[in-house]
Structure formats: structure tokens, C-alpha cells
Amino acid sequence: MAQKPITPDQIIEAMRVFEECGRNCTTAAQRMGIPRSTLQSRIKIYGRTFGGDRLHASPADELLAKVRVLEAQLASAHQDTLTARYVKSKIIGLSEESPQVPPWLIKAKKSGRPTGTPTLFLSDLHWGEVVDPNQVGGVNEYNLEIAHQRIRMCVEKTIMLLTEHITTIDYPGIVLALGGDMVSGDIHDELVATNAKEIMPVVLDLWGVLMWVIETLADKFGHVFIPCVTGNHGRNTHKIRAKGRNFTSFDWLLYQFLAKHFDNDPRVQFLIPDGSDAYYRVYEHRYLLTHGDQFRGGDGMIGALGPIIRGDHRKRSRNAQIDMEYDTMLLGHWHQLIQLRRLIVNGSTKGYCEYAWASNFGFEPPQQALWINSPGHGITFSMPVHLGEKMEAPDSWVSWK
Known about the structure:
The chain has two domains: 8-86, Orthogonal Bundle (Arc Repressor Mutant, subunit A), CATH 1.10.10; 98-386, Purple Acid Phosphatase, chain A, domain 2 (4-Layer Sandwich), CATH 3.60.21. It has a six-stranded mixed β-sheet. A five-stranded mixed β-sheet has the order 5-6-7-9-8, with no helix packed on it. The protein has helices at 8-20, 25-32, 36-50, 59-92, 103-106, 144-165, 189-194, 199-221, 250-261, 305-321, 354-358, and strands at 117-122, 174-178, 224-227, 268-271, 278-282, 285-289, 328-331, 338-339, 343-345, 367-374, 378-386. It has eleven helices and eleven strands. The longest helix has 34 residues, at 59-92.
């Protein structure tokens, strides 16, 4: 749990007791009932903020000391809040304007044909990870070359499903939800030992691939809206953080580089929140996008649904209290494709891996979620985008015994 900030009164009181005890730290700390190191820390803060190690006893001097302590604490807090803004505006060169949901995403296009907005959910790419087929019973293989093939296949199949299988809907644009764990990362020793490349070359490689994805979708559908959240694999810390989660994530850095690349392309708009959730709507349908690593638990019978449904319930309760209710929660992390009205859990492009095999999880092929929102009806079409090998086609369209 985070420590409470030290108040100016505590700092001045520590200095007063220190003086009264003949400047003996041990005696003063015992009198105040605090550790000796805590007392010494407060005395040092007093010296830094007031410019000396002697107590200034007048009321005016005490007030001035309090003001200086508060100013120092405010400056420290202000510096922390400027971290993301500084990176985006000074280093990456992005505008400081808050992202706005584009009008085409929430206003239905008036035409003679029905209108709908598709969403392609990309998450859990685990770019750079290697899956050895010999360690998973030969049911899957994954490396950078296969990752490139599957992303290209995902985009091509998405376009094919939306334009050849569904031919009567006008699309004002497409939503490309990026749900985290875009890179494999170095969070485990086994990943450090087996990943195809170091993290920086992997991020640059994926950056180029996602630029192609976004440009291809923009050329085909006219507009692309991209909400983004970070996962747990791309972090550069030992444990996932609640404070500053995004600013220690290579996922977040990747999104910022992409936003910078498309900064002058009016067809492309990003939503990159500073927190762990992205909130937006398509027409009247409200979405909450999160990665899903905060949901834990499950067992052999109910699997991932238990922690996911409990987590959804908690988020709905929290959001109802702050006037941010949502209709559907989107999450990745679990590498299981589940498409329901209240929640959509994405699959992965990596597919079945050694961890799933050793944990005796059910087989899950590589796939990503795709669906269409229709004005006034919400989600009307849901379809997986399969990225694995094709099954043999049967001789007849239906059969029975």
C-alpha cells in the first residue's frame, strides 16, 4: 500500500522535538514513537525546504516552512503527472489535444443500404515469441516469420469476410481495437532465453507491420478508429504496476509511435488512455476495452469464464458509480475466443503454446475476433478470423448417421 505523504505539521513537530531533546535523534524518535530513520528523514526534509537545520520558532516562520513543504510536494506530484505529456509532446512530437471519438463512429450514415461499423480486435500477438512444435504435440508453431504471415492473413480475411461474404452493408469506417500483449517481452526467464530477438528490434518490426495493417484498412474502409490498451507482457518492470502502468510498457510506446506516424492522416484516429481501460462507443453501443490481466482465478470446470465474469461484474459496478456504464467489455489475455453480447474475449495470433500444453489447457487455434455494429441493434454479426491451417472440406454440405 502506498505511504501517506508527510504533512508540514509532522515535519515541524519532528524538528521541535529534536531540538527539545538536545538534538538527540534516538531520544526524540522514542518520544515521538517513530523509527529513528523516519525522524532523520523528516529533519532532512525540513533542512531542504527551509534552508537550514535549526528550528525557526516564530509563527510566521512556521507558516513559511509549511508553504515550502507543500510547494515541494506539489512540484513532485506535478512532475509525475507530466511524464506522459512530456514523452508525447516533446519526444514523440504528438499534439496535446485530448482524443475525440470521430463523428462517423457514432452517427449512422444515411443511405439506401444498411449501415454498419465493423471492429477487428487485435491482441495477444506476442510478437517475438517462439513456439516449438515439438513441445506442443505438433499442433502449432510460432515465430516471427509465421507471425508476419498470420497478421497478413488476418487483414486479408477481414476484408474478404466484410466485402465478399457480407455485401449489402455500407461501412463508414472500421474500428481496430488493440488489446495489449502486442510483444512477447522479457518478463520471464524462459522468454528471455527463447524469444527470437531482443525487445527493441521486436518493437520496431511490429511497428512496421502495424503501419501496413492500418494503411491497408484505411485504404479499404476510408476511416480507422484505434482504441488501445496495454497488456502485461510488454512491461519493463518486474511486476505489473497500478501507477504509471502504461508508461513502463512497450505496448504504449508502440501505440505512440503509430499515432505519431499517422498524425497527419485524417483517416486515422487513436484513443490511447493513460489508464488501463479505454471507453468509447459505436453508434449507441458502449464499449470498455481492457487487457484482462487484472482478472485472476478459474478452475478446471469453469475455466476462464469465472474470473472474467466476476471481473466484468466489478467493472460494471465501478463504472455505474461514475456515469460510465458500458454494454460490452472487450478483453484479451486469456487466449480464448468468446464472443457474447456482454463481453468479447479475444483469441491470440500466437495460438497454442508450451505454457498451455504444460497446464493441460484445452486446444485453442490462432484466431481473432471480428464483428459488426448496426445502428439501433448493437452487435449483429460476430465471426472469428481463423489464422490456422484449413480443415479438409467435406464431400457434402450436411451429413448424418
